[in-house]
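Weekly puzzle thread! Below is a chain. First person to post its structure in token form gets bragging rights.
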Amino acid sequence: MRGTDFGNLRAFMMIVDSGSFVRAAAALKIAPSTLSYTIQVLEGRLGTKLLQRTTRTVRLTEAGSRLARRLGPMMSEFDTLMEDLTEPREKPSGTLKLCVPRMPMRLYMEPLLNGFEAAYTDITIDLTIGDVLVDIAVSGFDAAVIPNRSIQDDLVSIRLGPELKRIVYASPRYLARFGAPSEPGDLVHHNCINFRGPHTGAIYPWEFQRGQERFEVAVSGSLIVSDSTYTLSAALSGKGIGYGIEPISKPFLDDGSLISLLEGWVAPHPGFMLCYPKNRNISAALKALLSYVRKQSRAGSRLNDDRVNGRLGSTHIVRT
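Winning reply:
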């Protein structure tokens, strides 16, 4: 391995972890243009493209995915070794204030925090769970979980998981009365259940894609909600067509209570990030959490959890 290879591979994994060239460059304390050149050098060295970059997203190519899967555990092991060699005499302690929306709490943070609490018994977790708009810098939280595309430039972020599959769905009762849309444009003729994003206060766009083309459809209906579980309840009751991530709705798709629509059209959800303020002194407790999350994220253990595979046992849906 050449002398610069390790640094270039580290930069690549920083992009994978943060989901953004800009955020990775900030974490590495280099200019985004320098980071872009670093990745170009790495791709030239390997003779293959690792990342597909657009104005809105950064995605791994097939080769990039293979490299990240192999490299992640190695980097995690290296970080563990360095931390063991520089481990403080006293274990981290104190209170860690976190804010996590309900959905990523069940998908990611619940299993992560279970392991973290077992490993760091001297740290108290002060956890706020709710779909609310949080300004970490002024709210007193140490960190918060935020959708990838809603992250501000003054935050440092760690990716909690991959993009999530989204679906459009409705109950057999609704489809028997009104029929099924055959393409996204047909949704304007249906009663759609809109979702108001807790992090922006705006109506969440229904995003679709076909090949490289990505577009939005402005839907309307008689109901706007701010809780994804109630979107499911309303759809199960036949009130309209819903839109959301597959892991939450999968049990109802499996038993036939809901029908998936417009398959092959729906754009993926960008995923969630654990974020903290860029210019704030980081406590020992938060450092411990960030290190733990990075290790688990790179090891890929979160992807094997039943919650990500669609079995959200603690989600309660009311059927009428």
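Puzzle host: Confirmed. Bonus trivia for everyone else. The chain has a mean pLDDT of 83.
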